[in-house]
Amino acid sequence: METHIQKFLLAAESKALATISPQGIMNVIPVSTLKIRDNKIILMNYFMGKTQENITQNNYIALVAWSDMFGYQIKGPVDYITTGELYEEMKNWVSVTFPERNLYGLLAIDPKEIYDIAPDKKTKEYTNEHIS
Q1: Those residues with Cβ within 8 angstroms of residue 56's Cβ, 6 or more apart along the chain or in another chain
Q2: Using alpha carbons only, what angle is made at residue 75 by residues 113 and 103, rounded to the nearest 5 degrees?
Q3: In the chain, what are the domains?
Q4: d(C-alpha 73, C-alpha 66), whole Å
Q5: Beta-bridge mates of residue 72
Q6: d(CA 47, CA 56)
Q7: Per-residue model confidence (pLDDT) at position 130
Q8: DSSP notation for 45-77
Q9: What is the DSSP code string of the chain?
């Protein structure tokens, strides 16, 4: 994943995650916390009941992140993580940054498809001009 995409994702004003149930029913939720580690997008599960159920049956997801009229859609498989070094690192970070929240797990997305969703397809230029 290119650096400008990572920068945009970390700074995006809005983010939403889509999953599909075993019955083919879509589920879309807002996402508040996002990190990037080893070229994977890490989302925190504070209260993702239906999302967690869905990814155990179909682990291919879509994430969209946007600010103003710029953004990216990212599709790929996701792993659900509840133990290990990365989980402990994020759990400690959450306890300091958002002490009122409980971390139940991590979603580690492996980006396979990335699409610029801006009408003029210039999210890279927007990122380079507006995000440091």
Answers
A1: 80
A2: 140
A3: 3-123 (2.30.110.10)
A4: 9
A5: 65, 116
A6: 16
A7: 93
A8: ESS-HHHHHHHHH--EEEEEEEETTEEEEEEEE
A9: --HHHHHHHHH-SEEEEEEE-TTS-EEEEE---EEEETTEEEEEESS-HHHHHHHHH--EEEEEEEETTEEEEEEEEEEEE-SSHHHHHHHHHHHHH-TT----EEEEE---EEEE-STTS-HHHHHHHH--
**Alpha-carbon span 8 to 19, nearest angstrom:** 22
Answer whether 0.90 is exceeded by the pTM: yes
Total length of the chain:
132
What is d(CA 76, CA 110) in angstroms, rounded to the nearest whole number? 5
Q: Residue 70 CA to chain centroid, in angstroms?
A: 16
Question: What confidence tens digit (pLDDT) does each residue in 24-79 have?
Answer: 999 999 999 999 999 999 999 999 999 999 999 999 999 999 999 999 999 999 99
